[in-house]
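User: As part of a screening pipeline, I want to sanity-check one entry by hand. Below is the sequence and the SMILES for pyridoxal-5'-phosphate. Please return the complex as structure tokens so I can compare it with the automated output.
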Amino acid sequence: MAGKWRRDFEILDDTVHGHALVYLDNAATTQMPRQVRDRIAGYYAHEHANVHRGVHYLSERATGALERARSHVSAFIGAAHPEEVVFTDGATDSLNMVARGLSDIIEPGTAVVVSDLEHHSNFVPWQRLCAERGAEFLIWRSHDGRLSLSELEALLAGHTVKVVAVTQVSNVTGTVVPVTDVAALAHRFGSIAVADGAQGILHEGMDASASGIDLYAFSAHKMLGPTGTGVLYGRRDLLESLAPSRFGGGMVGTVGDSETTFGALPYRLEAGTPNISGIIGLDAAISYLEENGLDEMRAHERELTAYAVERLEALDGVAVLGHPELRSSIVSFELAGASAFDVAFMLDKLGVAVRSGHHCAQPALRSLGVDSTVRASVAPYNEKDDIDALCDGLARIRKMLGS
Ligand SMILES: Cc1ncc(COP(=O)(O)O)c(C=O)c1O
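Assistant: Here is the complex for your manual check:
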């Protein structure tokens, strides 16, 4: 039964303001199961050392654990080779590395396309890059949370587009963007396809080789892992040509007085000491997902998400924002007569954790015609009871506000 996962997340047994915690802020950060926390603690207790630079026992153990993690991530996302997995600080870091690394091909007369459903971390780096390089920054517009491939095709047909960068799942509307179709279309017009998998990796998954996506970014902390760790996947030939944007230890070949050569993949893109415990935690999170029925988890999440939409739409005064064809794990809404901030604040007093604001996606909110939303988002350990608690809380707030 679905409830079996919940017992691995002790934090969910906590009380908040005298109420049982109902955690529906998973799009911001998911909770970590005991198995992941134990693995990280075990690393610090028995394996902690710097990697790649020592010949002593501990350094070799830490290096072995890190490289096993790389192979595991590689298999999990269907990469063709482990060196196609670069460890970063998170999705934001990965996307900034991509935009910086591709800067040479973004010239006057060329363009980059992003959708208006992007998180700022897959919007601002490209906007900045285009401004710096004198290239066009084109926005693929959504309509009530839906994106049309024919509108993307029209943009590609009318410009010299070098990069199409889209989210796999919108962190505002939950829209599942058909990134495989986007990649095929981008390739037809000679563009590189970049996907932001921060909200997609846990709930939808990624088969990188089969999808045709050229570059893919995600964060460990949105897939039951720790904060401060992320991944940049890239096709090997593309990563080999990506210019490093961070320089320092571990990534060089030879450092001369006037010139430096860079090392082989993936190290040429991994300057400095990596977040070793975070990477080991990511490895453990993937093991947890694989060993505990990932397909079943995703089916459970789909059912919960549909239930949340159905219950919220039936509530007086609640308007769900965005109606994608396919929705993944996220529902944004407004409550008539109350600001999103006030709703989230009052729900918190009832023990229900949701997020309010623009969710670092202001263009997406503009497309929906609002300044802020309340956002509820689910993970495998949530239950229908959590959605009921959210809806009961909203009904209480409506009553308190006298509406
Ligand atoms: C769609 C999307 N992309 C990127 C990010 C950035 O992730 P991080 O803050 O882990 O770098 C987020 C975080 O909320 C997100 O939802």
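Points to compare against the pipeline: The chain is about 40% helix and 15% strand. Residues 294-314 form the longest helix (21 residues).
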